[in-house]
Amino acid sequence: MSAPFRSTAEAVVAALEAHGISTLFCLPGIHHDPLFDALFDSAAIRCVHTRHEQGAAYMALGAALATGRPAAFAVVPGPGWLNTTAAVATAWAVNAPVLALVGQLPRALIGRGLGMLHELPDQSGTLRLLTKWTGRIEHAGAAPSVMARAFQELTSGRPRPVAVECPIDVWEETAAAEAIAPVPPPAEALDEDAIERAARLLGRARRPLIVVGGGAQGAAEGVRRVAELVQAPVTAQRTGRGVVDARHPLWAPFVAGYRLWRDADVVLAVGTRLQLQQMEFGVDESLSIVRVDVDAAELDRIRPPAVGIVGDAARVLALMAGRLTAHTDRRADRSAEIRALVDASRAGLARDFGPQIAYVDAIRRALPEDGVFVDELTQIGYVGRLAYPVYRPRTYLSAGYQGTLGWGFGAALGAKAAVGPGVPVVSINGDGGFLFNAQELATAVRHRLGVIAVVFNDSAYGNVRRMQKQRYRGRLIASDLANPDFVALAASFGVAAERASSPESLHAALTRAIARDEPAVVEVAVGEVRDPWPLLHPKRVRR
To answer: Is the pTM value of this prediction over 0.90?
Structure first.
């Protein structure tokens, strides 16, 4: 039987369907009109169209983080693509499998500088700077293979964003081309000698510690098993939270993990850059570090580890747990020791950051175990990194080291689109960051994305203002904000909104909103609060 004749646009839609993309976050335009005409006939893909290109990209990022699966967005070239770059840079930072479908000029005009609509000097160059892989569909017959390669890059090795360009005059071209089935990730050969050395080192450790990052989100069972075998507490900074249930007796939140770092003799670092620990906490000759990472380049970026293992964390840890039984005598239960340290850390946090923690606790009490918490660059968010308990993988979403102000509400909408009805998603925001993407309230209403946005309003870029007071003798400049009435703003979009004046009233408002499972905004007026920065970047404890 001969291959079916189809247009490039139809081939791209077929590839998206074959690779499990059920939602395309998008903002249509002339450079990919045929793509949307082809999407009209797809029963498998929902188009969530946004009010700004950055919203589309942030939503794809949130969907990818909440599920660990590829998510996609589509925008026009030039300014459309450039509007998404903060989100794509954040996807790079947090290792999110996001596919950018980006339009392009007609083939014969690319790179000629003629001043065509949406032309950039080198769009492909900008794409390559921010993605793991970039491809272009040069003709209709190439569409299946280019899309298959894009998804192979998304699902193999280190997950990071990829991009596919399609010139405007290629979308409607037709060719006889068979669809290419999803290509499984290549089988990786693990270094079993290195795993054995790591098991021996951990088995002999007196004060082992495990640090997990975003690369361990799919390896929760292996992390827990290794931790219990060697009685090693497990800690994380941001993207590794939820790998181990915060109620597990070996879980050590960030402040407790900092204190444990000082005395650790062997650290197992899984899927984490370990940047803060190595560069700020310090490393000395009495500490041996075992690194497990899918990216070989990451292992010795800061300093060579005692043992470096390249591979998928779940596979590596499963093998390591099997080897540990030969090197580990029955360990004394450290749960009482860890619990005492955690309790002391929490007591210190409650003493110093009581107002913020009360709001963090109110959110945690309102959200069920599988509820998704989307962090932001706001005063409550900073303390939430230290004090918000996370019970399951992929239920605490963070912008990681990129620190992308304004990312949270858009990412939360994408997360909600991915996890679906019945799973609450709460986005915390400052008044500054929320207005970066507040227009996407319209998207929430149009597509029935029941995200609850909590806006903590201090009428300022609060972190900037505090630094100006503390470091620059109160010389305040460009940090105060003139805000709308957030409740009235939300109501104008048709979104249920209310004000909360205390942690108790916030909990009640969240409970009502979760029951409705519809878009909601809760505004909370807050005053100045204590600076958590010294705890987020504490003093060096080792050379």
So the answer is: yes
Give the residue carrying structure tokens 């190595």.
278
Q: How far apart are CA 468 and CA 22, in angstroms?
A: 46
CB-based contact 430:77 (threshold 8 Å): no
Same domain for 163 and 202, yes or no, is: no
Residue 398 sits at the vertex; the CA angle it makes with 315 and 394, to the nearest 5 degrees, is 45
In a domain, 47, yes or no: yes
| pLDDT above 60 (res 166) | yes
Q: What pLDDT does residue 2 have?
A: 62
CATH code, 465: 3.40.50.970
Beta strand residue intervals within 9-132, DSSP E: 23-26, 46-49, 71-75, 98-104
Q: How far apart are CA 92 and CA 97, in angstroms?
A: 9
Q: Is residue 230 within 8 Å of residue 202, measured between CB atoms?
A: yes
Residues 333 and 378 in one domain: no
Instruction: Please spell the DSSP secondary structure of 453-513, one letter per residue.
Output: EEEEE-SB-HHHHHHHHHHSTT---S-B-----HHHHHHHTT-EEEEE-SHHHHHHHHHHH
- pLDDT tens digits, residue range 245-271? 999 999 999 999 999 999 999 999 999
Residue 443 domain boundaries: 353-535
- Alpha helical stretches, state H, 278-407: 296-299, 313-324, 335-352, 354-366, 379-387
Q: Is residue 210 part of a domain?
A: yes
pLDDT digits (tens, 9 = 90+) for 191-223: 999 999 999 999 999 999 999 999 999 999 999
CA end-to-end span of the chain? 69
Banded pLDDT at 3 (limits 50, 70, 90): confident
Q: What is the mean pLDDT of the chain?
A: 96
Which structure tokens are listed for 99?
A: 């596919």
